[in-house]
Structure formats: C-alpha cells, structure tokens
Amino acid sequence: MSLRSLSTIVFLVVFVSYAAAEDIKLQANGESQWYRGNMHTHSLWSDGDDYPEMIAAWYKEHGYSFNVFTDHNVLLRGERWIDVEKNKGGKVAFDKLTAKFDSEWVQTRTKDERLQVRLKNFDQIFDRLAIPQKFLLIQGEEITDGYKNMPVHMCVTNTTELLPPLHGESIVEVMQQNINAAISRRERTGEKSLVHLNHPNFHYAITAEQLMQVIGENFFEVYNGHPTVNDSGDDTHPSTSRMWDIINTWRLAKLDLPLMYGLATDDGHAYHRTKPGDGAQPGRGWVMVLAKTLTPDALVTALEAGQFYSSSGVSLTRVAVTDGRLSVTVAADADTDYRIDFIGTRKGFDDTTVPAVDDQEKAKRHSLRYSSDVGMVLQSTTGSSGVYQFTGDELYVRAIVTSSRLHSNPSELGDFQQAWIQPVVPNTP
Ligand SMILES: [Zn+2]
Ligand SMILES: [Zn+2]
After folding, report:
1. Distance 62 CA to ligand 1 centre (A)
2. In CATH, what number is assigned to the domain containing residue 135?
3. CA-CA distance, 100 to 121, in Å (whole number)?
4. How remote is the CA of residue 149 from the centroid of ligand 1, in Å?
C-alpha cells in the first residue's frame, strides 16, 4: 500500500469517528422542530385543584405542544365521581368548567343528596383537545413512594399501565426498584416510557450521592415550579443545580454511569391562583424538545438523545457541538441582557468531600460538600450567544443562560428567567 493511500485511510478513520461522536446540532429545520412541553401535572384525579380538561386547555392556549398528566399513583382511567364542592377546586373550579365546556360534556348526578361530577378519562380529554401535530396529551403518572417519611417521587411519561410504588429498604432501593420495574415494563410492552426523578430537595429527601448511583435513572428535575421543593437549597443542602454537577462528575469519573439530564417542570397543582409566586401554578418551567414529529415515541427518543433544553423563560434558537466547541444562541428578547455560563468539571479535579453538618447521624441525610473543582464555571459570556472551546480535559460541559428579566411568576422570589443546556461529554479526537 502506498503511503498516500494509507494516509487517506487514516484521515478518513479519524474524520469519521470524530464527526460521528461529536456533532450535535439542535436547531429547527425542515426535518425537526422544537416542541414545548410540561412533564409534571396534577389534576383532580389526585391533589391538583382543577379538572384535567381545563388543565389541558390551559396548556393548549399557552403555546405548549404537549402536556403529560402525572397524577399521584393513578392514571386518568375508569369511572370516578367526585363531589362538586368537596374537592380541591370546589365550586370555583366547577363554575369555570361549566362555563368553558357545554352541558353535554359535563356529566353530573345526585347521590346522597349531593351533586357529583364525573372526572373525564384521558382518552375523552385527548379526543376533545388534541390536534394532530399541534397539541398532544400524554398519559403519565407520578409514582409516589417514600422511605421513612421521606418522599421519593418519580414521574413516568407515556405509560398505559399503572406502575404502583414498590417501596424498599432505603432511599436508593426505593428509586432503584421503581426504575427497574419501569424499565422491565418498557421491555415487555415496547412502550417508550421515560422515568424522571422529581424534586430531590422536597423535604431534602434525596442526596446527590443517593441519586447518582441509581442505574437507569438518567433524568431529574433541575427545576420544579412548586414553591416548596427547595430548588435552590439552603446553608446545608446544595441546590438542584449543584447536585446536577456532583452527580454527573461522579457518574463519569467514578461510577461509569451515563450523564444525567436536567428537566424543568411545573408540578402544577394550583390553577386558580392569580398572585405571582402563590402556590404551584402552571407555566413556570418546561422542556423544549427538538423532534421529528409530535408523538410520545418521538419525544422520548429525542429526550433520551439529549435533544432538548429546559427553560423557565429563556428560548434558544440553536445549541451545537461542532469542531470542538459548544455554542449556544439565544432567541433574544428586546432590551434584555443574557449571561451564558459554561459549567463543567475537569479531569483530575479535587475529589475530596466533607460532611455538610457535624452530627454524624444527620450528615447521612445531607449531600456531602465537594470541592469548587466540581461544576466550576469554566467561562462566562454576556450577550445573546456564547461559544466555549473545549480544552479536552473536561469530563463534561453544560451551559446555563440567565436573563436580566425576572421570572414573571416565580416559584422562588427573585428567580430570573433561565435556560438549562444539557451536559455534553467532549470527545477528545
Ligand atoms: Zn412529587
Ligand atoms: Zn408532583
């Protein structure tokens, strides 16, 4: 073989492996488009305060492409009658329902001298409100489990079978048992369902060390719009954003597990409040999924491929990993400033940890404290676009865009609008 043809082969091999492993381009084009969706919703089927068709209509009228119903341990199925007044939404919810939907749709009856209304099933709501390729409703569930008064909740997107909580002898076992069951069921039914861990800081139930080790759990809520879930942590508990970096650093450097992706969701329960910040109102956090078509399968496939970003107000036009660079382009609003932070952990990071509190028993229920090498800001850029050049020694890099605009209806006072770009593992060519 001549030297020339050998070098051609070497060039081709290097080029092909480099291109195949590294290129990511998230941008709407003729083939794919962005779909905005919420993956965590409660209705009167569990502890939400509105009728599911009203909630579906809310998302449809507010620019969403899809919404997933995730009531606690229940699917929107079967015959369920509730007292018109004695429920979380009460008369207010019923009056709004009857004003929006005709009397043929709203089924009522009188039982024991009380007026009751029948909750609509998922299929009925879907048939009434879905629009092909415009608005999709997905059946899900919030598997609502726990361990010793500590809530362990996991949302399933796209399931036609109920996944009952399976419990366990530790927080980790509870998570692992439920995820195993969901994966097994997916293997049996072929139904593309996705499980994500909800609000780890709710009751500060789940530590970064516990979550990082759950095999098969590759999604969690970096943002949950419920005001009581402690997204930003406190003096002795890391924020969900900090947990994300701890988890991914350890998964990649120590545990040989894949990246965990971060979702933004509403966890809506309160649909009749009007004061900003009051209760778990809808519309606070969502995902933007780049998919080829608006079906549950295509959305889950795209999510699993990392083809999405999460948002609490900031929109992006493009995220790309090309030529050894991660670039982010914001769909900028007028008179708004943006800061783009590129965050990651370098190989050879300081891996020392210390307990968050002195009391040894209490310390077990807190995430450890990690060095500032873990999830450090590698570069900070102002403006509506930013480019980070990989040096090759990063375990992963993610980006977060923060707007100068405050969230109009925040779960935590003073929150700015943000977008969370999913972590990527740079490929060293
Ligand atoms: Zn929950
Ligand atoms: Zn919930």
Report:
1. 23
2. 3.20.20.140
3. 18
4. 13
